[in-house]
Design goal:
The chain has 228 residues and is an alpha/beta fold. The chain contains seven helices and nine strands.
């Protein structure tokens, strides 16, 4: 049985001409537990919006998204927040780390949304991603690659069943990107989490056995999608 099920999902945004622009149009998409799937698409093709719809950060105009049998599109904002905190981990392209908090505090805060902060687990996750000696550092004291490692640890903090990764290598050099992708895949496998990654980088996409192209879903063309 699929852990993530999407049917007839659509999202429109206002266009500069006062009309509407179809950004996401996904007739059907599914992901089973512990599966790895990459989705490709050019910049502005709707990749981030697609992930945000799955996470319930953005509301769909029509269609359904079911996560673990629960229809997130029919939930209140509070229930979506709770489901996202418990079932999902999100690795944002810009990391979204809180600059006034240490690495350890960022991971613990990520846990608090799920109602179960565990300092010991937070430390173990940071050690696993190679930051055992930098737990008390602030994000501004870390390299870009190290900041992303904090983001990976935070995404796995509540032992989610699904991890969403939005262009996770986009801000990294080639060597760091390769190491980061390996880390993401290994930690998801160790934590028995499914992984849905979106990217425009062909070298990243080639590493996945299952790769879908957004053009299959009739997503948006080249108009820039909003930043979230």
């Amino acid at each position: 049985m699929s852990f993530l099920e999407i049917h007839q999902l659509k999202k429109f945004y206002a266009s500069p001409t006062n009309g509407t622009h179809l950004v996401v149009d996904v007739p059907s998409f599914s992901l089973v537990e512990r599966e790895e799937v990459a989705v490709s698409g050019d910049s502005g093709s709707g990749k981030t919006t697609f992930l945000n719809l799955i996470a319930g950060i953005v509301l769909a105009d029509s269609g359904t998204v079911r996560i673990g049998g629960q229809e997130i599109t029919a939930m209140s904002e509070a229930k979506r927040d709770r489901l996202r905190a418990v079932e999902l981990g999100y690795i944002f392209q810009t990391f979204n780390l809180l600059q006034g908090f240490t690495c350890l505090e960022n991971v613990i805060l990520g846990m608090s949304f799920g109602g179960k902060p565990d300092r010991g687990l937070a430390k173990r996750l940071l050690e696993r991603v190679g930051l055992g000696q930098r737990m008390k550092h602030f994000p501004r004291q870390l390299s870009t690659g190290q900041q992303q490692r904090v983001a990976v640890a935070r995404a796995l903090a509540n032992r989610p069943r699904l991890v969403l990764a939005d262009e996770p290598t986009g801000n990294l050099d080639r060597r760091s990107a390769r190491e980061s992708l390996t880390l993401i895949r290994e930690t998801c496998e160790e934590n028995k989490a499914a992984l849905l990654l979106v990217s425009h980088d062909r070298s990243v996409l080639r590493q996945f056995g299952i790769c879908r192209d957004l053009s299959e879903f009739n997503l948006a063309g080249k108009e820039a999608e909003p930043s979230w």
